[in-house]
Amino acid sequence: MKALILVGGYGTRLRPLTLTLPKPLVEFCNKPMILHQIEGLVKAGVGDIVLAVNYRPEIMISLLQKYEEEYNVKITFSVETEPLGTAGPLALAREILGKDDSPFFVLNSDIICEFPFEQLRDFHNAHGNEGTIVVTKVDEPSKYGVIVNHPDSTCIQRFVEKPVEFVSNKINAGIYIFNPTILDRIELKPTSIEKEIFPKMAADSQLHAFELDGFWMDVGQPKDFLTGTCLYLSNLADKQPNLLAKSDSGYVYGDVLIDPTAKIGKDCRIGPYVTIGPNVVIGDGVRLQRCVILEGARIKDFAWVKNSIVGWHSTLGRWTRLEGVSVLGDDVTVNEEIYVNGGCILPHKSISTNITEPQIIM
Ligand code: GDD
Ligand code: MG
To answer: Is the predicted ipTM greater than 0.95, yes or no?
Structure first.
C-alpha cells in the first residue's frame, strides 16, 4: 500500500523548538513525531511512503533516509518549490499515488493516536466511495476541521475548516484514505484540502467518517504537546507498561518514560507524565512533573519543573523553577534560583532575571 505524509508548513506554533528542527522531527515521547506514523504505516503493510516536504528539505532528507533501511520501506521525498498547502502535495506526488487503482493513506504529521490503518482501509473498501476521514470528538472544535454526517449515516454532509460558530464537536483527526480518483479534483497549485476539496467531495456524497477509538491529539503547539504526552504515556501504561520507568526505582511516580542513557541523581521525585530523552543529566533532589526534557539537557540540583518543555542541551541551574507551559529552545541556560512562568525562550539565550508572566525572550 501507499501513503503520503504532509511534512511541510513552518511549525510556527511549536516555536522555539521548530527554530531548531522541523516539526515532524521534534521528539514526541523520545521518538521523532513522524516515526510514530511511519511505524504505524509499516505495521499496516504500507511499503511506499511519500514525504511531502517544503520547509528545510535537506535536514529532513538527511535524517529520514536512514529509516528506509531500518523499516524496510520505500521513502520518496516530494519537495515543493513553493508551499502547496494540504492538497497540492497530492497532485505533485501523482505519479506514485496514482500508479495503480489501490487506495492510499494521507496524514498530517503532527497528530498522535493509535493509528487504526487496517480498520480504516477495511471500512473504506466496504463503503466504496472516494474518501474516508478519521474523526474524533473534542471539547474545543473551533481550532480544527469540523464535520457533520448525514442523519444515521457515515457519509459526511458538511466539512467546515476552523468554524467561527459552533457546528459540531466531531472533528477531522488528520488521517485519510482516498481512491486515486481524488487526484482528478486537485490541481498542481497551492490548495487546501480542508477548504477546497473536502467540501466538494461532501457535496458529491463521496466522503465518509470513520470514528476513532481511544486517545488523539494534534501536538503542534506546546500546551497540546504536553497534553498529548500525558495521553500517550497513559496509553503506554495500559498497553506496554514494560516500556515505562519502573516505579520501584524509588523516584518514579506514575507514568514516566526515561531513556536508558539518562542519568538521574539522588532523592529526585519524577512524575507523573514526564519524558526524559537520551543523555539527559538530572541532579539531586530534582522535582519533575508533567514535562518533557529533550536530549542532552541538564537539570541541576533542586530544580523544580512542571508543565514545561526543556529543549535540547539546555541547562537549568540549581533551585530554578519552571512552570506555566514554559518552553526552552535548544541550548538555553537558566541561571541559579531563577523563576520562569510561561516563558518561551529562543535558542542559545541565557536567562538571569525572573520571568513571572508569559512572554517570548528573543
Ligand atoms: N507538504 C506540505 N506543504 N505540508 C504542509 C503544508 C504545505 O504547504 N502546509 C501544512 N502542511 C502540513 C503540516 O506539516 C501538517 O502536517 C499538516 O499539513 C496540517 O497542517 P497544520 O498547520 O498542522 O494544520 P492544523 O493543525 O491547523 O489543521 C489541520 O489538522 C487538524 C487536525 O490536527 C486540518 O487538517 C484540520 O482540519 C484538522 O482538524
Ligand atoms: Mg496541526
So the answer is: yes
